[in-house]
């Protein structure tokens, strides 16, 4: 059962904007804690049972995860990072939502059926629905947010890219590539860095590609 609060498990564009949201909220004195990012089918079914076959109030109408799914990584939930006040301050969520909506996120507090103040998702301004996500149709990359009144310097961009690439390299590889990865490692085509980190989510340069091709060619000799 997967129920993660790890921001790095979000899709990379959503992850970057989620981190920007946290930074902007901190500047405004809003103590935000990310409580959920992705979940699997089993945990979603567990949530669906609440208020139906388990005690508690109904918190979802979905039997399978959509924007929160491990395959999509397009949504996250938050709370107020103050003990005893996690969900009791509607004004806190409204202030966070003001910032998030300027960035392009959709806020669950605006919904009519089940109002979900802790929830934020990227759906390209409502262009993508739960049905789209279930069918494997995902929204395009979310534009990376930056404040227009503060132009980014080359140094800031370089630092941001370094941080992004380091975080991406630490992402776990997808299950669908397991067989191919095992073959490539067994053949010595992919060997990882000096510490043995395979970095499967890192981008590949042309010189790295040349090394992979050379190693593959040697396996055919």
UniProtKB/TrEMBL annotation:
Record-linked InterPro entries: Peptidase_M15C (IPR039561), SLH_dom (IPR001119), Zn_M74/Hedgehog-like (IPR009045)
Record's keyword annotation contains Repeat: yes
Family matches, as Gene3D superfamilies: 3.30.1380.10
Transmembrane region(s): none
Keywords assigned by UniProt, alphabetized: Repeat
Calcium as UniProt keyword: no
GO molecular function: peptidase activity
Pfam families (alphabetical): Peptidase_M15_4 (PF13539)
Domain SLH: 164-221
UniProt name for this protein: M15 family metallopeptidase
Protein source organism: Oscillibacter hominis
